[in-house]
Design a protein that fits this description.
mainly alpha, 15 helices
Length: 308
């Protein structure tokens, strides 16, 4: 007969831990354990922060670092990038993935040059009005570059808040109004501390409170974490989206772009046909690149990265 463990399960807290009880431990942990990343250094400036935020979307730090360094060495100011053809941004993006980010960053650089005399604006509304800048990126640049008080909700922060404050393993697939309210409620009152809190909670999610194999023994707020106190109940929401790559149109697009990046001249269709055997998928991927503005078709069945 199977025995039943009758030991009581710790109750789920009825309300989130008071914000002030989280701030001190997380900020102290961040002071000791924050990674020395180039976009966190004072010399990075607002443009360096913006470039990093574009590159870090859905891409790990280790892959971003070399491309970031090369990018800033070539284009140290928005006007430097704006003066180049957008195809050069795609070429320099290399294999970071999701190359439309390169086009959006180029468009933002053009707008900054034309509207703001080449300086990344500090005003949140002006940041949000730039092409390619969404809610998260505007808040991140305003907070990390200018020390302002904004709720900065990336995947890592959302996971930390979901576990520590609401007692669930994972946040919803898409950011909700409830998450935004919680993030605002957890913000420290003064701008300088709020900016550090945004960076610290993000770092905690990246290094300790990870999606898998979380290290509660290293977490500065493990004793206050609602999810841990509840016995770490398993995720019971909608299935979490996985990221597949092999055999997808994304893989085909990447191979097509690799050929175009490596060639200074337009590439004939025959060279692109060599990268993937399945003609229907290959044509669909190429059509998608053209529709997204990442590739320009030319007469004679040739293709190149965009020049305007």
């Amino acid at each position: 007969m199977t025995s039943i463990d009758a030991s009581p399960t710790p109750p789920v807290p009825e309300a989130p831990v008071p914000a002030a009880e989280l701030h001190g431990p997380v900020l102290a942990w961040f002071d000791q354990h924050a990674r020395d990343l180039p976009w966190r250094r004072p010399e990075a400036g607002a443009w360096g922060v913006m470039v990093s935020e574009f590159m870090l979307q859905q891409t790990p730090v280790v892959r971003v670092l070399p491309v970031y360094e090369q990018w800033l060495a070539r284009w140290p100011r928005p006007a430097d990038l704006a003066a180049e053809a957008p195809g050069e941004a795609v070429r320099a993006w290399g294999r970071l993935g999701y190359p439309r980010r390169a086009l959006r960053l180029h468009a933002a650089a053009v707008a900054i040059t034309e509207r703001h005399r080449g300086d990344v604006p500090a005003d949140h509304a002006q940041l949000l009005a730039l092409p390619g800048i969404g809610e998260y990126t505007a808040a991140a640049v305003a907070s990390f570059a200018y020390g302002q008080r904004h709720a900065v909700l990336d995947t890592n922060v959302r996971r930390v808040f979901a576990r520590a404050a609401t007692g669930v393993q994972y946040p919803p697939n898409a950011t909700t109004a409830a998450e935004r309210r919680l993030a605002r409620a957890l913000l420290p009152a003064d701008e300088a501390t709020a900016s550090r809190w945004a960076a610290a909670s993000m770092e905690l999610g990246a290094l300790v409170c990870t999606a898998k194999n979380e290290d509660c023994g290293r977490c500065p707020i493990a004793g206050k974490c609602a999810w841990r106190l509840a016995g770490k109940p398993a995720h019971d929401g909608p299935p979490r989206r996985g990221q597949t790559y092999a055999g997808t149109d994304r893989q085909v697009r990447g191979r097509l772009l690799a050929v175009l990046r490596e060639s200074p001249d337009p590439v004939p269709q025959a060279d692109l046909d060599l990268v993937w055997d399945e003609p229907v998928q290959r044509a669909r991927a190429l059509d998608g690149l053209v529709s997204d503005g990442l590739v320009e078709p030319l007469d004679g069945g040739r293709y190149r990265l965009p020049t305007s």
